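A quick aside before the break. I want you to see a complete sequence-to-structure record at least once, exactly as it would be stored in a machine-readable document. Don't worry about memorizing anything.
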Amino acid sequence: MNSRGFTLVELLITIAIAAILLSAGVPAFSDFIRNNRLQSAAAGIVADLTAARTEAARTYLSVFVCPSTAGTGCDGTDWNTGRIVYADANGNGMVEPGEIIRWSAPLDTGLAATATGFSTLIAFRPTGAASAAGSIDVCDGRSGPHGRRVDLNAAGRISLRQVSCP
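That is the input. The structure line, written in tokens, reads:
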């Protein structure tokens, strides 16, 4: 008698093998997702700094990047709440609605950005040079070499590298 299909034993062995393979692959995939979130957050900071530097050189105005919760003005020193890029067209040192170039949303939950070298404001001169050198570290809950650091030197050069988180 010819029968088609699987026996119960064959099905159970196949399910057991699939479970073993999944249990080995899920942690690696979880780390992949976390690393991608870190890289994406750091790349967003790099994009904001690059946009500010480019706009300063293009318009020959001072352009600033600062923490911003709502995207309407600089508020506080917490780089996790979002950022705005604005060109101070009238030179009064204040953010005005027509001067805002872009706003970046807050970092994803579980990520933390820490600035060193500058706290509330990053300024780019019309030459493309930065007002101060510093860095912003983006980390998640893991310790070790999982974080990303955005470096900015006084000449305005922006770089991204891996860093160890506490």
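Two observations worth writing down. The beta strands are 63-67, 83-87, 100-104, 112-116, 122-124, 134-139, 144-152, 158-165. Residues 1 and 7 are 15 Å apart (CA to CA). We'll return to this after the break.
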